[in-house]
Amino acid sequence: MSAELDELYQSIILDHNRRPRNFRVMDDASAHAEGKNPLCGDQLTIWLKLDGELISDVSFQGSGCAISKASASLMTAAIKGKSRGEAEQLFTKFHGVVTGTHPEDAEALGSLKALGGVSRFPLRVKCASLAWHAMHAALVQNDVAGSTAPVTTE
Q1: What is the C-alpha to C-alpha distance for residues 139 and 137, in angstroms, rounded to an integer?
Q2: Domain presence at residue 152
Q3: What are the backbone angles phi and psi of residue 79, rounded to the nearest 5°?
Q4: What is the distance between the alpha carbons of residues 14 and 74, in angstroms, rounded to a whole number?
Q5: Is 41 within a domain?
Q6: What is the pLDDT of residues 38-85, one digit of tens each?
Q7: Is the pTM of this model over 0.85?
Q8: For 81, what's the count of Cα atoms within 13 Å in the CB-facing half-sphere?
Q9: I need a surface site. Which of 55, 77, 81, 123 has the fewest CB within 10 A?
């Protein structure tokens, strides 16, 4: 990766950490899930508002490192307006890129590829994927009476 591209990705992560998008509680959510990373103390809650198969709104709130917060912010922007299936496909591609198992999918991620560099730091992969696992759990739990789904990454 070129130095300029690396700098751009770093600025995207810092911007989403300082000014997270969709950072709020959603009172009328259809589903939500809490995520915790006991290794570093990151914790967040993801709320989804579903209109049939469409994610009409998404938000998060919590605390954590810059990577965790930026990833949650980028994720909410990426999945809003997508179908459940599209969100799950994005989750799969994102996970493959940040874990380094499918780096070739980075180009399909748009601004989410800014987090691809965490694949070089295994402990940071959990920070980057926490919100995504919580989103997935919220979608799955919504199929089971909309109950709350706790997620822990270890």
Answers
A1: 5
A2: no
A3: -95, -15
A4: 11
A5: yes
A6: 888 999 999 999 999 999 999 999 999 999 999 999 999 999 999 999
A7: yes
A8: 2
A9: 123
Place of tokens 């709104």: 57
* 35: its two tokens: 């995520």
Which residue type is seen at 39? Answer: L
Domain count, the chain: 1
Eight-class DSSP state of 17: H
Name which of 75, 79, 71 is nearest 118 in CA terms. Answer: 71
**Helix axis angle, 84-98 relative to 122-142, nearest 10°?**
170
Q: How many residues does the chain have?
A: 154
* Phi, psi values for residue 63, rounded to 5°: -135, 155
SS3 120: helix
**Domain of 142?**
3-146
